[in-house]
Design a protein that fits this description.
Elements (H helix, E strand, L loop, with lengths): L1 E2 L5 E2 L5 H35 L2 H18 L9 H19 L18 H21 L3 H12 L4 H8 L3 H25 L1
Antiparallel strand pairs: 1-2
Helix pairs in contact: 1-2, 1-3, 2-3, 4-7, 5-7, 6-7
């Protein structure tokens, strides 16, 4: 509609530019709605993969940006979650590969400290956790992602295969090899104590 100088209303057809703007706004709103519905789960998954909540926030943000740029390639909005999850796993994989340094802090209980049974348990659990973190850091990026998705995110082999883009047999092989490496490394650390 258009208001003429004489006060009359005239109906005009929307221009091509008007239609593009409306389509663009609707497209952006659909994307915001879909991303918003998956943010909590995506953040949890990234935190598991990266073992760092601040880096997980950055990874989810980066995944959302990548998804927006590739939004036109998604043919079926019903497939948004698996599509976005795969983008997120790839972002996390890239971040893990870029990590050059791992800051290690070795906790040694004070030999002179009086430790009751309960405090001793906390020290032992902290040492076990540190050994596990060190063992995970020694795995390849793909092995670490597979272990995290299997045991922290509690995903099945087929679900991990879909998320990582690997075959189920490859996922099983990575999982088997990673667990073998972790057992060997944890046993070696135990003998060093």
């Amino acid at each position: 509609m258009h208001l003429a100088p004489d006060g009359s209303l005239t109906v005009t057809e929307p221009t091509a530019g008007d239609r593009v703007i409306r389509q663009s706004d609707a497209r952006a709103e659909a994307f915001r709605r879909l991303v918003g519905a998956t943010l909590d789960r995506a953040y949890s998954r990234a935190a598991v993969l990266l073992a760092d909540r601040f880096e997980a926030e950055d990874a989810v943000h980066d995944a959302a940006e990548r998804a927006w740029r590739a939004w036109g390639s998604l043919r079926d909005a019903k497939q948004f979650e698996p599509w976005f999850d795969r983008i997120l796993v790839n972002v996390c994989r890239d971040r893990l590969r870029r990590r050059r340094r791992v800051m290690e802090v070795e906790l040694q209980p004070d030999a002179n400290a009086v430790v009751d049974g309960r405090a001793g348990e906390h020290v032992a659990r902290a040492a076990d956790r540190d050994a596990l973190v060190e063992g995970l850091a020694a795995l390849s990026v793909d092995e670490r992602i597979t272990v995290a998705l299997r045991f922290e995110a509690d995903l099945t082999i087929p679900a991990i295969a879909r998320l990582t883009g690997a075959r189920e047999g490859t996922v099983k092989s990575r999982l088997h090899g990673a667990l073998r490496k972790l057992r060997v490394q944890l046993a070696a650390m135990e003998t060093d104590r």
